[in-house]
Design a protein that fits this description.
Chains: A alpha/beta (284), B alpha/beta (229), C mainly alpha (331)
Low-confidence stretches of chain A: none
Radius of gyration of chain B: 18 Å
Oligomer: heterotrimer
Order of helices and strands of chain A: EEEEHEEHEHEHHHHHH
Mean pLDDT of chain B: 88
Mean pLDDT of chain A: 81
Largest interface: A-C, 34 and 32 residues
Helix content of chain A: 40-55%
Structural class of chain B: alpha/beta
Strand order of the largest sheet of chain A: 2-3-7-4-6-5
Strand order of the largest sheet of chain B: 7-8-9-4-10-11
Shape of chain A: elongated
Low-confidence stretches of chain B: none
Number of helices of chain B: 7
Number of strands of chain B: 11
Strand content of chain A: 5-15%
Number of helices of chain A: 9
Chain lengths: 284, 229, 331
């Protein structure tokens, strides 16, 4: 059983919320703190500098910055300040026999659910949370967010589909003439359909590849400028992070399904219409 | 030979703009001969040409190619027969812009899927029959009227068909080119080909090349037709 | 509802495919009612043009069903982290009673679409569309399956609630739960392997006999049909053990992952191809006597049989290489 101490601190001067945490291991020595990159930038405080806080009872307290957390961890640590236990209790006024949360380490994973049940029975006003549940919730939040972008994308996709349909059905007189000639000189409907299939394939693959490459460059080398507000949320302290480039074939397959499939389906009927032009149309 | 029996063609049946292009047409086209379909526009010559040339199916009646009835053949079979047996020359030549002369000539043979090198050689040979070999890589847009005409004829010959069909071939040609055209037809007849021409141009139907002239009027064969002029 | 991009992709494309299939079905009905090859009327010509549309649509259906089958497994795998107790796709699929039916229906529609295309190709070789009525009657069987698959897939995804406690393959396939899955998995592995090999040899032999002597088409089809579930069962109960090199890991979906060199993809594709081609041979056997198809059907059957044999060979290779090349043994 471990006591878990953490809380939020609102800094009125900088209009920012910090997350204060007493880590399980390697907490800083009394009088010093470890801060995250976002706070460091915000308050222009680096190793060796001092930052002032106001304690729960109004008294001013200052702490020396022992270390600034690495840039790579900014995603989770931008607004984080690590304290020692006694410093935290001084700052927040949390009495020695209390803690924000109690963390329970259970060695047998299969017993998580059983123990959680027992705790609820013993202490009815507590809420036991299994760590996996937290991870799952975060996962769900992220995918929910990406889902929102997808819904917006859906609108764009609809526009795209309408455009594709319009282009495909609004066959120019010239194309009709050419297909008519081909049919007259001995091409069969399936030959024309095959030709249209290759045409469609080239267009969709080129578009898919260039879109994917541009998207890749945008996300990994442009730090995803366009989508950042939706995904990172709203805060004064924005973490700066660089994503590690990687390619996930499952994602590519999904994008493929969301783009090439609707395009192909929209062009089936127009291609068929043009492929079944009467061979003698060119005579009339 | 090609025989039609009671062939009729109705467009837009059952609708307000229903139009009967042909009715009760029964003709016989003999092999190795030149047959001319004569008549004013709207007489159904073009429609009949389309049906005889396996481009369209008749609404009523039957059509025989030699011993084989081809009336109800599915499109893919009809197209196969058409590719092998017929070569078409159109009124407006109907060559495809943006392609070269050689590519235009090779087009009708692509669906057969033979080796490109063999096809190319045959196309070049055909072009040289018409003195067009040096124009093989030229774009269609750069050709003169006569050259375009000969390209169109070369295209019709690429699959070595036994029947040549031409719809109003001299409609857009001056007298000199019209006579040139008839001279080419004479040569082809000498090669054993069957030729069917639809025309209302006297240069064509009064020519001594014609073995048979069929006169058409309002979708029917005019009673005074059949027989040498 | 889980707004995963994969899920939305699957739902959108399945919806589009289902709509296309419905459209094809409507046209198919029209063809069944009014087809008259001897007539040269406008309607008949229009119907003949429509046959091209229907076959194009079903070809696309076939392609997309195959890809969406794998995408479904990939998605289920990715979703497994959201469910308590799920460790891979098996868990996600059991979270909801529609999970496995979706998978099953995708496989069934793939096979049916493949068979339809085989009949379609055979019919096109005849100058009088000899199989047209049978073909479009079969279409009316295929289309409801496609629609059902779409509906059930929707039910599956819409009914997924992330805090459901589901089970992973370990408990699904444990001796205490009684299910067909358990029966397959607790089947003794080495006899199962023997059964699979025996079946493969018999099917291969029948196929070879058919290709060489042109006899035994129905037998080959029957054996191919039986070999399909047998091969899948063998993969689950014994072959996967060798691939994972673990005596208790029976999951049929983990072999699709990178760690196992994606061996699952060629394995399952080979199984499906062998099934479709083998069954196709049997289907066509009935029409050998049709006058306009006398020459073309035997040729086509031969091609199908050869493809089926190649698929069987590849399957055998992929199945036995892990068995013989690793030092893992079940004995």
């Amino acid at each position: 059983m471990l006591s878990s101490l953490w809380g939020y601190y609102y800094d009125g001067n900088f209009l920012a919320n910090y997350t204060l945490v007493v880590p399980e291991e390697s907490s800083p020595p009394d009088g010093s703190i470890i801060i995250g990159g976002g706070i460091s930038k915000l308050r222009q405080a680096y190793r060796g500098d001092t930052i002032g806080f106001t304690a729960y009872d109004g008294k001013p307290l200052s702490f020396k910055v022992k270390e600034v957390l690495s840039d790579e961890s900014q995603l989770v640590s931008a607004d984080l300040i690590l304290f020692s236990e006694s410093d935290y209790r001084t700052l927040s006024g949390m009495p020695a026999n209390q803690a924000t949360d109690l963390a329970l380490k259970v060695y047998n994973r299969k017993e998580f659910a059983t123990i959680a049940e027992k705790i609820t029975k013993l202490l009815p006003d507590t809420r036991p949370i299994i760590r996996n549940e937290i991870l799952r919730t975060y996962d769900a939040v992220f995918s929910w967010r990406s889902g929102i972008v997808i819904v917006i994308l859906g609108v764009a996709a609809l526009a795209f589909v309408i455009f594709a349909w319009d282009k495909a059905t609004g066959l120019s007189a010239e194309e009709r003439r050419v297909i008519g000639i081909l049919k007259a000189v001995g091409w069969e409907s399936s030959d024309i359909l095959l030709m249209k299939f290759w045409e469609g394939l080239v267009i969709s693959l080129t578009a898919f590849l260039s879109g994917t490459v541009l998207g890749y460059l945008h996300v990994f080398f442009g730090s995803s400028i366009l989508f950042v507000p939706v995904l990172k949320g709203w805060s004064t302290l924005y973490p700066e992070f660089r994503l590690i480039p990687f390619v996930n074939f499952g994602h590519l397959a999904t994008i493929f399904f969301l783009t090439v499939v609707p395009y192909t389906v929209t062009t089936i009927i127009p291609s068929w219409r043009v492929a079944t032009i009467e061979p003698d149309s060119v005579l009339r | 030979m090609i025989r039609t029996h009671g062939v009729g063609k109705v467009f837009n049946a059952g609708r307000p703009n229903e139009f009967t292009a042909l009715s009760e047409v029964s003709i016989t086209l003999n092999l190795h001969q030149v047959t001319i379909l004569k008549g004013p526009s709207g007489s159904g010559k073009t429609t009949l040409l389309g049906i005889v040339g396996c481009m369209a199916r008749p609404t009523t009646g039957r059509i025989f190619l030699g011993e084989r009835e081809i009336t109800s053949l599915p499109e893919r079979f009809l197209t196969g027969i058409r590719r092998e047996t017929f070569g078409f020359i159109f009124q407006q030549f109907n060559l495809i812009k943006g392609l070269t002369v050689l590519e235009n000539v090779m087009l009708p043979a692509y669906p057969i899927g033979e080796k490109h090198a063999i096809l190319k050689k045959r196309a070049l040979d055909t072009l040289s029959l018409f003195n067009l070999a040096r124009k093989a890589e030229a774009r269609i847009e750069w050709l003169s009227g006569g050259e375009a005409q000969r390209t169109a004829i070369a295209r019709a010959l690429i699959n070595n068909p036994s029947v040549i069909i031409a719809d109003e071939p001299t409609a857009h040609l001056d007298t000199k080119l019209s006579h040139e055209f008839m001279a080419i037809m004479r040569r082809l007849k000498g090669d054993g080909k069957t030729i069917v021409l639809a025309s209302h141009d006297p240069i064509v139907y009064d020519s001594d090349l014609a073995d048979m002239v069929i006169e058409m009027r309002d979708g029917r064969v005019a009673p005074s037709a059949e027989g040498k002029p | 509802m889980i707004l995963y991009p994969n899920v939305l992709a699957l739902l959108t494309s399945s919806l589009l495919i289902a709509l296309m299939a419905l459209y094809a079905g409507c046209h198919g009905t029209e063809i069944l009612c009014y087809w008259d090859l001897a007539s040269g009327s406008d309607r008949q010509l229009r119907l003949e043009r429509t046959t091209y549309l229907v076959s194009t649509i079903i070809s696309y259906v076939l392609g997309f069903q195959l890809i969406s089958l794998f995408l479904l497994l990939f998605t289920a795998d990715g979703l497994s982290t959201l469910f308590v107790g799920a460790m891979c796709a098996v868990g996600s699929l059991t979270a909801n009673k529609f999970g496995y039916p979706t998978l099953l229906l995708k496989i069934v529609t793939f096979i049916l679409a493949g068979l339809w295309l085989i009949i379609n190709h055979a019919d096109n070789q005849g100058y009088d569309y000899p199989l047209i009525r049978i073909k479009y009657a079969l279409l009316l069987v295929l289309v409801p399956f496609i629609l059902a698959e779409d509906v059930i897939q929707c039910c599956y995804f819409l009914g997924l609630k992330p805090d459901i406690i589901t089970s992973c393959c370990g408990s699904l396939f444990s001796p205490t739960t009684r299910a067909l899955a358990t029966e397959i998995v607790t089947a003794p592995p080495l006899p199962m392997l023997a059964l699979f090999s025996g079946g493969a040899l018999a099917t291969f032999g029948a196929g070879l006999r058919f290709v060489v002597r042109r006899r035994g088409g129905y037998l080959f089809a029957l054996l191919s049909g039986l070999q399909f579930p047998l091969a899948v069962a063998a993969v689950i109960s014994v072959i996967s053990l060798y691939i994972y090199q673990m005596p208790s890991h029976h999951c049929p979906f983990c072999i699709l992952q990178k760690e196992y060199y994606f061996i699952g993809y060629p394995l399952y594709i080979a199984i499906l191809t062998a099934a479709v081609c083998g069954l196709g041979v049997g289907l066509l056997q009935r029409f050998r006597r049709v006058p306009s198809l006398l020459e073309s059907i035997p040729e086509f059957q031969k091609k199908l049989a050869v493809t089926a044999l190649w698929s069987q060979a590849i399957l055998a290779l992929l199945a036995f290489i892990p068995i013989f090349s690793t030092s893992f043994t079940l004995r």
